[in-house]
Design a protein that fits this description.
This protein has about 170 residues and is mainly α. About 80% of the residues lie in helices and about 0% in strands. It has helices at about 5-70, 80-100, 105-120, 125-140, 150-170. Helix 2 (about 80-100) runs antiparallel to helix 3 (about 105-120), helix 2 runs antiparallel to helix 5 and helix 4 (about 125-140) runs antiparallel to helix 5. The protein is rod-shaped and about 110 Å long. The relative contact order is 0.08.
Length: about 170
């Protein structure tokens, strides 16, 4: 074998090694692209499920609003009836308290608090208390649509509900 043949074989061996490395790199790139495609498909599926759930939630909220609008509202000047109304106001806050738990979704709770404020307002509760209650609606709207509420905010809300209950008790 001549020196040129040896040199040519060495160069061909280098080229063959480079081609093998390129092939391995291309195979890895194909694997990465297929993983990205899988993630995108999963994300699209999740987006569809979230949209479907949001539509169902909107339908349920609309149905609840229609039920509340159909319910008769009672107003009377007698103090006995007013005390009964205050008790029903307290029941609204108690119901709200039971709905608060760790891991609750902020947008759901915001809607429930807003509905409770609306019910209390329609029953003649003082506007200062309604403003305090609606403040929490605005606070919870700072969270994303599917974010859970931080435990510290949940504790603050529970404390505020206790304070609202005390204010309703003073109305008696």
């Amino acid at each position: 074998m001549s020196e040129e043949d040896t040199y040519l074989r060495a160069k061909l061996t280098e080229i063959n090694g480079a081609i093998e490395r390129l092939t391995q790199m291309l195979n890895r790139m194909i694997d990465v692209i297929s993983k990205i495609t899988e993630v995108q498909d999963t994300q699209s599926d999740l987006a569809l499920v979230v949209n479907a759930n949001a539509e169902k939630l909107d339908e349920i909220l609309e149905a609840v609003k229609n039920i509340k609008q159909a319910a008769p509202s009672q107003t009377s000047a007698s103090s006995i009836v007013q005390k009964g109304a205050v008790s029903s106001h307290q029941a609204i806050l108690d119901t709200l308290e039971t709905q608060i738990r760790d891991g609750v979704i902020a947008s759901d709770l915001s809607t429930k608090i807003n509905e409770a404020a609306g019910m209390l307002e329609s029953k003649g509760v003082s506007s200062s208390l309604i403003v305090k209650i609606q403040r929490w609606t605005r606070i919870l709207k700072t969270y994303g649509r599917v974010d859970t509420i931080s435990p510290t905010d949940i504790q603050k809300l529970r404390n505020d509900i206790k304070e609202w209950s005390r204010e309703l008790s003073k109305m008696r």
